[in-house]
Amino acid sequence: MKSLKILIIVLSLLLTAPQTLAKKQKNSEPSTIEYINIKWWNKFNDPILDNYIIKLYKNNQDLKIATIKSAQSQQIMKQAFANQLPQLYFNGYLQRDFTASDQRFGDVLISDYNQAHYFLPLTMSYEVDIWGENYLKTKSMKKQIEMTQQDERATYISISSNFASNYYTLIGLDKLIENQEKLVKLEEEIVNLEEEKYNSGLCPLSELLSEKQTYTQMSERLNTLKERQDVTLNQLITQLGDRYETKIERTPYDTVTVIQTPEEISTEIIANRPDIKKAELYIEKAGIDVKVAKRDFLPKFRVYGQVGFNAFDWCRIFAPHTFLSNVGVAPSLDLFTGGMKKAKLKYNKLEYEKALQIYEKAILTSIQELNDAMMSARTSEANYKKSDERYKLEEEKLELANHRFQVGGESKLDNLKNQQIILLSEESKIVNNINRVIASINVYKAAGGQDYTKQTSTL
């Protein structure tokens, strides 16, 4: 009975310690809704876009896959933590011996016999983590989970940004198609007037053919724009993850809000990018793995014990004299493993050096992407301002042309061509304006899904 008491005490101590450790390791996980960053998308003052971003969060399959991968890593973490806990299992058996001949043990003769053997034990084993090796393995796995969460966050930032870019591309295409339809209609009128002039002998055939050629080119461009509109629409529907979605609502072009990108953004903003965070965690994980490999050279101590019943008669299996209990400690030390542990330690050290290089590369790549996005935003802003200036000049010219037309100083044909010129000028303005919006989204993406408008330090 003393052995039973000792076993019970050891079991209670081992079961209490890991539970305390589990409470310390339990921490709050970030909610995936934070990865979408709704506050940022609210800056565009577009309730339709906000609703679609929420729907994207709920339905997009790529986002769900990323979340599932993160959840899977949590289960791997639990498996790793289970190695820090004592193992308790039942491994009983029923055996029937049949001896067909006599057996002799010295002067003792045992004639042929048969008998049953019933063994019903509960077995406990626990590797005492004296050197903290198992704890470090769990800690390393925790870093791996955090790396997976950064991959998940990167997926949310990328997909939401791509969706918003396609959304504003679609709005721009709507406006371009509207303008192109006006251009085609004006060109059709021009062709009709040119035909009248040609029939009256007031213009050469080449002039008429040139206008007809222009008409076909404008019609062709209209078809191309409509194709792009359909393709972009299908992409948005697919991203929303709803097979029953057939159309995409969008705000009118004239109500589009442009986020003004500051001239300079601090490079410190990249510190919170998912790839930078992942690279930092990778360094920490590799460092922990080196410690684990070093401690693998040390001896291990396993506590074991059994409690149960051992009998040769089923009817008396739970009798007092059949009770079985034992407890002990089994130390072990690997004396020769063929250099396996040294190779493992060297491998983990090299992995740590690789992690440092990956971190340096991630920093350089992040700075490059942020600088590229900022340059694109500046260029888009500058191009929009120039196209706006040109459009205003064309408006003034059209106003003068309309005045000449009203007083009879200009033909209707010339007036139609002047109307075309301002529509072409507006087309350039539309493209540059949408590019401004998309450029601001790209800066947001390069900044790691952060509101960069609050950053004021130098780049």
Q: If you had to describe this structure to a student in words, what would you say it looks like?
A:
By secondary structure, the protein is of the alpha+beta class. The model is unreliable at about 15-30 (pLDDT under 50). Strands 1, 2, 5, 6 and 7 form a five-stranded antiparallel beta sheet that branches. Strands 3-4 form a two-stranded antiparallel sheet. It is elongated. The relative contact order is 0.13. The chain has helices at about 1-25, 35, 40, 45-60, 60-80, 135-200, 205-240, 275-295, 340-405, 410-445, and strands at about 85-90, 95-100, 105, 110, 115-130, 300-310, 325-330. The protein folds into two domains: about 1-25 and about 90-100 and about 110-130 and about 300-330, Single Sheet (Outer membrane efflux proteins (OEP)), CATH 2.20.200.10; about 45-85 and about 130-300 and about 335-455, Outer membrane efflux proteins (OEP). Strand 3 (about 105) and strand 4 form a beta hairpin.
Tell me the major beta sheet: 5 strands, antiparallel
Low-confidence stretches: 13-28
CATH class of the largest domain equals: Mainly Alpha
Helical stretch count? Answer: 10
CATH superfamily of the largest domain: Outer membrane efflux proteins (OEP)
Termini separation: 75 Å
Task: Give short descriptive properties of this protein.
10 helices; Outer membrane efflux proteins (OEP); 459 residues
In short:
The protein has helices at residues 2-25, 33-36, 38-42, 47-59, 61-82, 133-199, 205-240, 274-295, 340-406, 412-446, and strands spanning 87-90, 93-99, 103-105, 108-110, 113-128, 300-311, 323-332. It is an alpha+beta fold. Helix 6 runs antiparallel to helix 7.
